[in-house]
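Consider the following assembly input.
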Amino acid sequence: MIGEQFLVERRDLQKLLDALQKKGYETVGPTIREGAIVYGPIASVEDLPIGWTDEQDGGRYRLKRREDSAVFGYVVGPHSWKRFLHPPVLSLWKARRNGKGFEVVPNNAEPPQYAFIGVRSCELHAIFIQDRVFTNGKFTDPHYQARRQKIFIVAVNCVQAGGTCFCVSMKTGPRATVGFDLALTEILEGQRHYFVAEVGTEKGAEILRSVPTKPAQPSDIQIAEDRVARAARQMGRHLDTTNIRELLYRNLEHPRWDEVATRCLNCANCTMVCPTCFCTTVEDVTDLTGTEAERVRKWDSCFTLDFSYVHGGSVRASARARYRQWLTHKLASWIDQFGTSGCVGCGRCITWCPVGIDITEEVRAIRQSEAAQLSERGG
Amino acid sequence: MAVTLKPQVITEVFTDPMVPVPYRVRRVRRETADTFTFEYEALDGRRFPFAPGQFNMLYLFGVGEVPISISGDPAHPELLVHTIRAVGTVTKPLCQAKPGDIIGVRGPFGSSWPVREAAGNDIVIVAGGVGLAPLRPAIYYILNHRGEYGRVVLLYGARTPGDMLYKKELAEWRGRFDLQVEVTVDAARPDEWQGNVGVVTTLIPRAHFDPHHVTALVCGPEIMMRFTILELQKRGLRDDQIYISMERNMKCAIALCGHCQYGPHFVCKDGPVFRFDRVKEIFGRREI
Amino acid sequence: MTTLERLLSEHPFFKDLDPRYIKLIAECAREVTFKAGEFIFREGDPSNKFWLIRSGKISLEVFAPGRGPIMIETLGEGDVMGWSWAVPPYRKQYDARALELTRALEFDALCIRGKCDEEPKLGYELFKRFAQIIGQRLQATRIRLIDIYGSHA
């Protein structure tokens, strides 16, 4: 059944959620909160942002009513799935004093078993990238591992591009090709509203058996593919990744870093919304009596001064150095570290940058200045 | 670059490397006004095998955790030895610990000095200030296996005679015929110091080793290492003969938190000891 | 080749110097020995000599009233001591004291200046070598200025 495609009517989508919940999954997915589409618990299809879309551009995000009642008619918001696999705040262990010493109790709490509803292709790739970060080296993050092992992924293929998307450049979308249990393509055509569902795993097949389906005909599949291809064509942003690692490594002292530093507020938004940024800090805290201590892990950002602190001061004291660190890590040293780019082209860092700094534009500026120099020399 | 990623198949189960193990302070020795050497033993009597150059994360209950390199003898894993300088919010109280006090230890982490690979070669060790501490296990190892090496030279620079670590041991090593030890200070009064005065790099042109068959182990503040490398290169050493120990903000020590990134490297995992040619493109570059 | 010429050509400072020049400058040189504790010169002395150290150790010191002598540099085998002979006002700026029995080759600076005037190519060669020594001393001083061993917490 893996690789096969089926039709699921819109009215039967709830049965998919029901089947997952019955299996013990906590269903989480897109939902509207505080004027944005974020990820949270989804009890029923009604919790999804039906009939809503998002308008995105550099430093701009607005929800808008759609003219139809599409269930997945928007792209990605400020949240990503990393908040479930790599929680923003996590207690690592607690310790209690006993005599002169102390006893450590690791946090072995069983994490929830999540079903992610509406994972976009770029986000799937973000998960694969974090897999490499957290479980592919000498050390493994047991907390990530415990969560990751259990998830069920319902992917959704994008049929329209967001305002800041560039997944085509990063070869991460818009079509989900691997790593999902089920993948849906939403089709609205006149009065018909249905999904083409592709089975990715045996687990996915089993869930889909509890949902009324019909085998998809080649024409159905073609329609779905056309929609996804349209999204790819709509994509307004582009990032040229040709030899990007070498490009950035040889331009560590480029004046563009100074220029971007005059705009960057060092707010760390880009790192918080990025689905692959993984940096954390730990806080060691005690209760008032000093008998109990706890180590709490929290998301951290390379945009903070403390991040690179060694006794005496910060290694990256300037905004220029911190922006350079973020961008060169994401697009260059990530490749050395994990064998892949750290960018999936989701566009979140562009949308949620308060001053609209655009990663694709920054790379282009550096690349073009080199090209200009070359042609000057040649001419 | 094309992202051709597949989801990871996760099967192995790992223990949590973030959980510290309790150790008891056995002995404290004052080295300088603000630096102390501690001997610790595990409460459960476990041994602590490590490689010279590796570090531990030391935890003080409720206060926090700091990376400190191991400065003991790798031939004596029953004893964990750290030399700590009281400079920060965690190291200050750590240095006040008394025998019997308990601390937490995670480790050992990181890469090590290439003492095995260097067998057959001359060795030149250049240390600055507290940089002698991470090198001491390498010195022990080399002296324990003295026959395997050619000439061995230890060059040590400190600000003043009072800032030198391991004074008694330095005197013992100086007494050996199979080890050239040169110590220098930035300035001194003639009544307190009879040795060299000058920066540690001035000892390099005079040190006795064969530049083509020598391995250099260098540890100290980053600027000291930069000038040391320049001198070693003047003597004719290639970049792949020089090893340095880098310092960055190690927090998790297991390459997951991102803090200690140094270009493409995680200092906690790929370092702290680096072969110089592997970092030379970024070494000395501002704010990397 | 005389013994003195051989000693000169063996010293690193004169490495690869044309034997013709070695012969010339040997006429200005002599072997000397300093006992431990002996002052070789004192601050303010006219600077009309310099030395190539063959063995031993010499400390350059300044005397600060109330603090006593402070060693600011030690020189040993292979080092050159003294370059103030080459530039006005030709005065020693520090005290120099042998810390142990020290053997050196001593040069009469007036004699050397004379040779250099006669043979400008020798002068150029010699000054290149002294410039390198001065540069190294300056570098060593600058490094110490930044207190390279310190932590700055």
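The mean pLDDT of chain C is 91. Ask yourself how this observation constrains the way the partners meet.
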